[in-house]
Amino acid sequence: MAKVAVIGVGQSSFVRAYPGSIRELAFEAFREAMKDAGLKSEQIEASVICSAPEYDKQRTPAGLMAEYCGLNPQPTFYVESVCSSSSSGLRTAYALVASGLHDVVIVLGFQKMSEISSAESQERMGRGADIQWEAPFGTMMPAYYAMYARGHFEKYGTTEEDLALIRLKSSTYGVINDKAVFRKSLDLPKIMEPKYIATPLKMYDCCANADGSSCMILASEEKAKELCAKPVWIRGLGMATAPINMAGRDTFSGLKCAQLAAKRAYEMAGVGPKDINVAEVHDCFTIAEMMAYEDLGFAEPGKGKDLIRNKETYKEGKIPVNVDGGLLSKGHPIGATGGSQIRTIVLQLRGEAGEMQVPEAKIGLVHNIGGVGIYGNVSIFSAD
């Protein structure tokens, strides 16, 4: 199969309320990625634009972004799989390059969630589930993940304090990430305060809405070697889906779509969980990170809590996870999240992650989930 590399990455700061328009927000990540790659707009052969609809009034945002970023008249595509949109965009761009159709393709993800109220945002996220049989009864994201937390607790004996330890780790690294929305150090008593959102999930178990953008530039092997001193190679891509309706699920202690996506990505890359040096996982809630440890094979089912109790997912541990603060500290601008995770891994594999750098990181993994385990994307990258 043809080799494809990431040759440039960019990200805006993630903030609670961006003062400009969606095109200006998206351009911040685009500009940084283009500068990182040393490219001009005319060198981009196609673009893949990623976001979740209904958070702003703009229809067909791909056309808007292509025009604003100077990418006309080249082809542009719009990709949406809610929270995993830009990882799905990566998969789309990879196919465009690996097929030989294009040599250089950009993936640009954005979300300006502050254009609507918090209540409206929760309602729209709730409609990411089944709008006939679930959403009308008031289900929202915290409640869905609370069901998974309850399932994990009952099956494996996981506790609220185990989840709090994940948030403690997140705050440790969020403080040093200048792109993060939440850069405040937390201690365990603060995290454990009984401010329940959906029992057993408390306030600090939940990530925050944010405005932000992310961008990646993909290139064919020939172009990557020509244009980039440190290309990061896409080794494995796995994607899977699960029933949108919770009644179609047979377990509430892990995400089947993540497990299958991981299996496919490992097989394509020719590696296993023990080969991963650093990972970014979709920690929209603390329980999501706990399940990711197990779904990705970093721990056996029910043993994820041992990893966080022993600090094995810290930078100095056996498998560093979310050492940029994760969604819990960075915030979660839906369409930009996957691209932000990929940017972190690319910087890690280039040895350019600063204070967050994991020593001798050669193989990295990104786990990006859309909705409540509806879409699962796992992507594996290597420095060579």
Main attributes of the structure:
11 strands, 36% helix, 384 residues, two-stranded antiparallel sheet, 18% strand, alpha/beta, 13 helices, single chain, Peroxisomal Thiolase, Chain A, domain 1
With helices defined by DSSP (H or I, 4 residues minimum), what is the helix count?
A: 13
**CATH topology category name of the largest domain:** Peroxisomal Thiolase, Chain A, domain 1
Taken in chain order, the helices and strands follow as EHEHEHEHHHHEEEHEHEHHHHEE
The helix content is 25-40%
DSSP, total strands = 11
CATH architecture of the largest domain: 3-Layer(aba) Sandwich
Strand content: 15-25%
The main pleated sheet reads as:
9 strands, mixed
Tally of domains: 2
Distance between the termini: 16 Å
Spatial order of strands in the largest sheet: 3-2-4-7-1-8-11-10-9
CATH homologous superfamily grouping of the largest domain:
Thiolase/Chalcone synthase
Compute the average pLDDT.
Answer: 96
| Cα gyration radius (Å) | 19 Å
CATH class of the largest domain: Alpha Beta
What does this structure look like?
With 384 residues, the chain is of the alpha/beta class. It folds into 2 domains: 4-117 and 210-232, 3-Layer(aba) Sandwich (Peroxisomal Thiolase, Chain A, domain 1); 125-207 and 235-382, Thiolase/Chalcone synthase (Peroxisomal Thiolase, Chain A, domain 1), CATH 3.40.47.10. The protein is 36% helix and 18% strand. The chain is built from 13 helices and 11 strands. The protein has a 9-stranded mixed beta sheet, sandwiched between helices. Strand 10 (363-370) and strand 11 form a beta hairpin. It starts with a strand and ends with a strand.
